[in-house]
Amino acid sequence: MSQKDVGNKVPIYKLKKTDEVMRYYDEWGIENKYDQDMLDWNYTGPKETAEVFMKYQKNTDAKIYDAGCGTGLVGVELQKYGYKNFFGADLSKKLLDLVPQNLYQKLDQIDLNKKINEKENSYDAVLCVGTFTFGHVKPPALDEFIRITKPGGHICFTINEGIHEEYGFDKKITELDQKNKWQKLEFFKSNYIASKDVNAWLGLYKVL
């Protein structure tokens, strides 16, 4: 699906620059329109990801880095399974301000296209849902996710189907496979935003 096609369904997909994306999200967060749109659109990414993740990570005390956490939709879903040790990061301060109180241990406003200010091997898992998409975070972020995840930990993410090859996520995933950086546990096409006919690849990998 081309950027033009999905841009007509989800306007933010038309944007290419980080500052444009940040301004859009800041406006989207006004009066919590973002969460309402996600509900109206039947955005299933957080729910599907949580369901896959809980099959492999049985320790509900696991330290989880939610990369591109937005308003905390992934944390809300994970909390339903008993997880509670969340650390969130997002580009938009407006969306971070909408995260439910006391859901996350810490929230940072950062650009995930840059080096993450976290120590190596400091998390049991990194989740990144809805962030690998048009004009957002690029494939090198996967290297950073692996760096901050403990060996044996998990990385769970979605990649909008429209950028999987266009942005080179397919090549990056193959490269990490070949370098034995991680092991594939799940990789399949998910519904993602069913009402807009926008699908995504959902992957879960174990860090080696």
List keywords for this structure.
disordered N terminus; alpha/beta; Rossmann fold; 7-stranded mixed beta sheet; globular; 208 residues
Q: Can you describe this structure?
A:
Strands 3-2-1-4-5-7-6 form a 7-stranded mixed sheet, sandwiched between helices. It contains 8 helices and 7 strands; from the N terminus they run ααααβαβαββαβαββ. Helix 4 (45-56) crosses helix 5. The chain has helices at 3-7, 18-28, 33-40, 45-56, 73-79, 93-96, 141-148, 169-178, and strands spanning 64-67, 86-90, 106-109, 123-132, 149-160, 182-193, 198-207. With 208 residues, the chain is an alpha/beta fold. It has a single domain (3-207), classed as Vaccinia Virus protein VP39 (Rossmann fold, 3-Layer(aba) Sandwich). The model is unreliable at 1-8 (pLDDT under 50).
